Amino acid sequence: MTCDDLLSRMVAAVDETVDDPDERLAVLLGLIRPLLVAGNETTTRLLAEAVALLCDRPAEWRRLRADAAHATRVTQEALRWCSPVQQMPRRVTCATLLGGTALPAGATVLVSFASANRDEAVFDRPDRFDPDRADLHRHIAFGHGIHACLGAGLALLQGRIALQTLAARTRRIEVADHEPRYLPGFLLRGRAQLPVRVQR
Questions:
Q1: What is the mean pLDDT of the segment spanning 75-101?
Q2: Residue 40 in 3-state DSSP?
Q3: Which range among 18-32, 69-83, 145-159 has the greatest average pLDDT?
Q4: Residue 57 falls within a domain, yes or no?
Q5: pLDDT 10s digits, 168-193
Q6: Which domain holds residue 52?
Q7: What whole-number percentage of the chain has pLDDT above 70?
Q8: How many structural domains compose the chain?
């Protein structure tokens, strides 16, 4: 029996190129884990934050209901405002000076997407949620350069479609009374739950 799905194709490709069974398993796990986190955890966390932001801003919710295309800008601004991936370690390849601090080659630095996305030197009024901001495209929720997220296009599509569908099927949505609690984590940020009340 053969399967024609992504994981089966990955297994077949690794089987053809890696001889050692232990190394084969390590390679597969190295490929599958990021797919599960990047394609699932981050999108779930983004959507919960986007819904919470819209619940706190009824005018934005009404606008989204009236104009489905607005979901693209809401998704982008939610990514800037509360990036699911907060930071990422990177290795310094050559000695450099950054912000007055000497970084030796081989050092590990922690790049904070959360901080960069609220940089007032880049974003006008960075602590304001504003899907109409002119500098919206400058957020780095998906990283940058050769380290940019391969799934960025899919994540934007998922966010846009989810918000459009929710707005089309829901007249009103509000966060139910609860104490916001975030899942523990260093690199990822997201709510443990987001109970809502919905009027159709």
A1: 93
A2: helix
A3: 69-83
A4: yes
A5: 999 999 999 888 899 998 888 999 99
A6: 6-84+117-199
A7: 98
A8: 1
Hey, what amino acid is at 121?
A: A
**DSSP 3-state of 183:** coil
Six-digit token string for 116: 């960069």
Would the CA dihedral through 63, 65, 66, 70 be positive or negative? positive
Element (DSSP H or E) covering residue 168: helix 152-169
Do residues 155 and 46 touch, judged by C-beta distance below 8 A?
A: yes
CATH number of the CATH domain containing 134: 1.10.630.10
Residue 65 lies in a domain: yes
Q: Is residue 127 part of a domain?
A: yes
How far is 135 from 43, CA to CA, in rounded Å?
22
pLDDT digits (tens, 9 = 90+) for 117-137: 999 999 999 999 999 999 898
Q: What is the structure's pLDDT at 187? A: 85
Q: What's the whole-model pTM score? A: 0.82
- Is residue 83 exposed (0-12), middle (13-18) or buried (19+ Cβ within 10 Å)? buried
CB-based contacts of 48, cutoff 8 Å, min separation 6: 190, 191, 194
- Does 1 score more than 60 pLDDT? no
- The Cα–Cα gap between 187 and 48 comes to 17
| CA-to-CA separations, 47 to 2, 28, 99, 186, in angstroms, rounded | 35, 28, 34, 19
Domain-located, residue 107:
no
Dist CA 47 CA 6 (whole Å): 25
